């Protein structure tokens, strides 16, 4: 028989037993979970390939959820106003630039200047030596007629004045300077007239460095505290206007542009109008040179000039020639000179050629002075041309 005490004792023991069993079950369960978690975390990721959803969109399904607001275009996006003053550069003044760039010129033209000097300083100047001098000059693109003229003068002076290393250098220097012609007026007409800005058109075959020249010239003028406006009349190549504007932005100069493929004459007109309104000192107009026929070129450049002249006089037409193109450059120069009155030449890339003689040849050919020379891709690597400094650099 179960007494009440026994019942109480039994139920206490049963209670304890139940608690022990529950505790054991709980402990075992927790341990199992920990172990399985550890195992999972120890498995290398690579062995757990993500499950791929292989359902592919079918025809008519949109790639993304339809939306009820239209996608914003680039034009709609407002850019934060930029403070122009923060990025404006202070260009180097043009004065003394040729002196800074002299070493570069000397390096590229070493074979011309030093080659001539070495030949002239020989103990015996025989026919062979004179022939070598002629070849050196022709190879440096001086041109046949100026070469013969120079050799003739050198021969006479060396005979009359006697030969010696130091004298040879002086004679050569004098005769080269005479050939480059220091008497030519190389001043750029870039000063404001009574009521109007000076207008400069920059022309030349594409790739010669026209846009770069306009940009560099703008810097020269800004360094002289001149107020400049740029005209991107090279509407042929979209990037040309961007390129020009970048040059302008760097020195805080406005660039007037038109639509891509638009009428260059109308952009030129607008830029001059802008220059007049802003009372600018100078308007520099970049033009396209990508014209294959002389008639096309004449039509375009002639029209640009005529349209500008409705409101202002064109003060300078600068023809840009790539010095590395040699005879080709001369041929191009001739064509341009036939279609427009060129007032000055810009010889670019003189740093990249040993043929500095092109300065002499092209001036002779066109009867127009070289006014500027490009001596590198740097923003201030363009200098006003000076006959004496140029020859000194050749003979350095
Ligand atoms: N080394 C050197 N490179 C130059 C000089 N001048 C211009 N260049 C380079 O020549 C290349 C052509 O210059 P651009 O100014 O684009 O020529 P462009 O005549 O305006 O050409 P288009 O716009 O295509 O008609 C650029 O890479 C310039 O950096 C120079 O004096 N020396």
CATH superfamily of the domain at 198-387: P-loop containing nucleotide triphosphate hydrolases
- Principal-axes geometry comes out as elongated
Mean pLDDT over the residues: 81
Secondary-structure class: alpha/beta
Helix content: 40-55%
Query: How far is it from the N-terminal to the C-terminal residue, by CA?
Result: 133 Å
Number of strand elements: 8
Provide a compact summary of the structure.
49% of the residues lie in helices and 10% in strands.
Chart the SSEs and their pairings.
Elements: H1 4-42, H2 97-100, H3 102-108, H4 110-120, H5 127-139, H6 144-161, H7 165-180, E1 198-203, H8 210-223, E2 228-233, H9 238-250, E3 254-256, H10 264-277, E4 282-287, H11 294-308, E5 316-322, H12 326-339, E6 344-348, H13 358-366, E7 370-374, E8 382-384, H14 387-395
Parallel strand pairs: 1-4, 1-5, 2-3, 2-4, 5-6, 6-7
Antiparallel strand pairs: 7-8
Helix pairs in contact: 3-14, 4-5, 4-14, 5-6, 6-7, 7-14, 8-9, 10-11, 12-13
The structure holds guanosine-5'-triphosphate (GTP).
Residues 204, 206-212, 234, 237, 240, 289, 348-349, 351-352, 374-377 line the site of guanosine-5'-triphosphate (GTP).
Written account of the structure:
The chain is of the alpha/beta class and 396 residues long. Among the domains are: 94-180, SRP54, nucleotide-binding domain (Four Helix Bundle (Hemerythrin (Met), subunit A), Up-down Bundle), CATH 1.20.120.140; 198-387, P-loop containing nucleotide triphosphate hydrolases (Rossmann fold, 3-Layer(aba) Sandwich). It has helices spanning 4-42, 97-100, 102-108, 110-120, 127-139, 144-161, 165-180, 210-223, 238-250, 264-277, 294-308, 326-339, 358-366, 387-395; strands at residues 198-203, 228-233, 254-256, 282-287, 316-322, 344-348, 370-374, 382-384. It has an eight-stranded mixed sheet, sandwiched between helices. The structure holds guanosine-5'-triphosphate. Guanosine-5'-triphosphate (GTP) binds at residues 204, 206-212, 234, 237, 240, 289, 348-349, 351-352, 374-377. The chain crosses the membrane at residues 14-35. Residues 369-382 form the SRP54-type proteins GTP-binding domain.
């Amino acid at each position: 028989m179960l007494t009440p005490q026994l019942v109480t004792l039994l139920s206490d023991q049963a209670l304890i037993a139940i608690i022990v069993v529950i505790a054991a079950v709980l402990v075992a369960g927790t341990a199992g979970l920990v172990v399985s978690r550890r195992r999972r975390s120890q498995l290398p990721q690579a062995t757990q390939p993500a499950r791929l959803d292989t359902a592919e969109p079918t025809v008519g399904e949109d790639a993304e959820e339809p939306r009820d607001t239209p996608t914003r275009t680039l034009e709609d996006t407002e850019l934060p106003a930029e403070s122009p003053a923060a990025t404006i550069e202070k260009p180097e003044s043009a004065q003394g630039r040729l002196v800074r760039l002299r070493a570069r010129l000397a390096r590229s033209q070493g074979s011309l200047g030093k080659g001539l000097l070495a030949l002239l300083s020989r103990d015996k100047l025989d026919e062979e030596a004179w022939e070598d001098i002629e070849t050196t000059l022709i190879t440096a693109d001086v041109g046949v007629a100026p070469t013969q003229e120079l050799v003739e003068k050198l021969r006479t002076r060396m005979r009359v004045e006697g030969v010696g290393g130091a004298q040879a250098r002086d004679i050569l220097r004098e005769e080269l300077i005479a050939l480059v012609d220091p008497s030519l007026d190389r001043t750029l007409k870039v000063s404001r007239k009574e009521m109007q800005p000076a207008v400069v058109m920059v022309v030349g075959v594409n790739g010669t460095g026209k846009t770069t020249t306009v940009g560099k010239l703008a810097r020269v003028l800004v360094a002289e505290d001149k107020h400049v406006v740029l005209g991107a009349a090279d509407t042929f190549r979209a990037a040309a206007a961007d390129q020009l504007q970048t040059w302008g932005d760097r020195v805080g100069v406005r660039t007037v542009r038109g639509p891509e493929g638009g009428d260059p004459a109308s952009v030129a007109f607008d830029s001059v109008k802008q220059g007049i309104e802003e009372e600018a000192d100078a308007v520099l107009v970049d033009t396209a040179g990508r014209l294959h026929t002389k008639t096309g070129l004449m039509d375009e450049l002639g029209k640009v000039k005529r349209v500008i002249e409705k409101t202002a006089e064109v003060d300078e037409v600068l023809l840009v020639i790539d010095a590395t193109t040699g005879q080709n450059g001369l041929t191009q120069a001739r064509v341009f000179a036939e279609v427009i009155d060129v007032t000055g030449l810009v010889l670019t890339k003189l740093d990249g050629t040993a043929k500095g003689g092109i300065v002499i040849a092209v001036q002779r050919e066109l009867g127009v002075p070289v006014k500027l020379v490009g001596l590198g891709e740097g923003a201030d690597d363009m200098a006003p041309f000076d006959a004496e400094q140029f020859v000194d650099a050749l003979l350095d």
